[in-house]
Write a structure and sequence with these properties.
Its EC number is 2.7.13.3. Helices cover 43% and strands 27% of the residues. By secondary structure, the protein is an alpha+beta fold. It folds into three domains: 4-105, PAS domain (Beta-Lactamase, 2-Layer Sandwich); 111-185; 191-346, 2-Layer Sandwich (Heat Shock Protein 90), CATH 3.30.565.10. The chain has a five-stranded antiparallel beta sheet. Strand 4 and strand 5 form a beta hairpin. The two termini are 26 Å apart.
Length: 348
């Protein structure tokens, strides 16, 4: 069929005839309406909106060559659900009697904008970190070497204490630089990954470090298939998120009611990163801590931004980088009493 390629699109598409009857509905529209293609095709598409008259007016305008495309906002009815706010775009086809009605869910548009910002931010962070690390590394070696030479010339043990401070601080900065450059140096080692083995590894590490006052809940969907990925990178990703959560749970750990949850689910027909996926992994790392401070909530994936004293501010930056290397992304939803980091990765 000539319109079958529309099934590959994430936006909602209907091809309608002059009387607004549906000639074709793509898969995304079926999912949104909660109806089968068979029941949608042949129906009057205007009746799918809370204000049917607006579609008829828009179709008349498009066919009258008044505009190259007609755009307006509307509410799309859904079976058993609340109406969905959508941005409607109407364009003519080469066949005069056929018109394409494209609908972009406004919540999806907002999400796409947010994902684009995250992707751009991650790329900017990567370039900034790489350049900054190299700029720091070169003079750092010179400072350390000069301090060692100076120490060899000193006869007073008291004065060598100062050169030792220089050397130790240079080593500390070198360690920080190495961590900044680590994700760009290490090759992406791809193999079969079982996400629950990843979670279990992180769980054992977390319980070894925080043995008291913390309950780790496992809520797994064991039907999730293995997928191709870098197991060590994913362990580091989940560990960084869980480690931050445990530090945020300090008061609750002391009270004995801290809780960390690993939840795995499969989500179907999901769009992220401007691409639609048939299946994707959802891995949630949820804690019952105080939540992310408002002052840094919009910047938590920026490098060197930390919500705790002594934090390096690199954990979440590296986590987002690793997940993006798996064509996924990390989202976060945080309120006092519940913070949920959601890792999304496409599945085969």
């Amino acid at each position: 069929m000539q319109f079958q390629s529309f099934d590959q699109l994430a936006t909602l598409i209907a091809v309608v005839e002059a009387d607004a009857s549906v000639l074709f509905s793509n898969s995304a529209l079926e999912d949104a309406l909660g109806s089968s293609r068979r029941s949608i095709v042949g129906s009057c598409f205007a009746d799918s909106f809370t204000e049917p008259h607006a579609l008829h007016v828009a179709l008349d305008g498009a066919r009258g060559n008044n505009f190259a495309a007609v755009r307006y906002d509307a509410w799309l009815k859904r079976v058993g659900m609340e109406p969905m706010p959508v941005h409607v775009i109407i364009t003519r086809t080469d066949l005069v009697e056929h018109t394409i009605v494209e609908m972009v869910p406004l919540e999806q548009q907002t999400r796409q904008d947010r994902e684009e910002r995250l992707a751009e931010q991650a790329q900017s962070n990567k370039e900034l970190i790489r350049n900054l690390a190299h700029e720091i590394k070169n003079p750092l070696g010179g400072i350390r070497g000069a301090a060692q030479l100076l120490e060899m010339e000193m006869e007073s043990p008291e004065l060598t204490e100062y050169t030792q401070v220089i050397i130790r601080e240079a080593d500390r900065l070198q360690s920080l630089v190495d961590r900044l450059l680590a994700p760009h140096r290490r090759p992406h080692l791809v193999g079969d990954v079982n996400i629950h083995e990843v979670c279990e590894r992180v769980r054992s590490l977390i319980l070894a470090e925080f043995p008291k006052g913390l309950r780790v809940v496992r809520d797994y969907d064991i039907s999730i298939p293995e997928f191709r990925g870098d197991r060590e990178q994913l362990i580091q990703t989940v560990l960084n998120i869980a480690h931050n959560a445990c530090h945020a749970l300090a008061d609750r750990r002391q009270a004995g009611d801290a809780e960390l949850t690993f939840r795995t689910r499969v989500t179907r027909q999901i769009t992220f990163g401007k691409q639609r996926y048939r299946l994707a992994l959802e891995l949630h790392v949820i804690d019952n801590g105080p939540g992310i401070p408002e002052s840094i909530k919009d910047r938590i994936f920026y490098p060197l931004v930390s919500g705790r004293e002594g934090g390096s501010g690199l954990g979440l930056t590296l986590a987002q980088t690793f997940v993006q290397q798996h064509h996924g992304l990390i989202e976060v939803d945080s309120v006092p009493g519940r913070t949920d980091f959601k890792i999304l990765i496409p599945l085969p």
